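Notes from hallway chat w/ T.B., transcribed later so I don't forget. T.B. wanted the structure written out for a chain they're using in a teaching module, and asked if we could keep both sequence and structure tokens in one place. Agreed to drop them here.
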Amino acid sequence: MSQENSIIDRGSRPAVRVQDRVLDAVAMLTLLSGILLFGFGRAELNSLANQSYTAPPAGVTWVSRAELHDAQTRWGALLAGAGLILCTGAAMKHASARRRAI
């Protein structure tokens, strides 16, 4: 095999930068954590409504448990929304970098 055939020609395309990968990872983790937190909170609220929730420890009221899981769903929705915005921004950044490279 000759030396010329073993080299991959990438043309003028730039290498992937670490900052782009970090932005992708942060966006994905934010989105996934928001979805998981929202789903967990909704499942626990559903079990409270169906009366299948295990009894809270002494001194903790049912209302405080419901407020906790309601807050989980709100924070989960906020995190998922922030993750969606970050994902959209990262996709737009990648698209503009591809256009510049062409």
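Follow-up for T.B.: The two ends are 31 Å apart (CA to CA). Might be a good example for the class.
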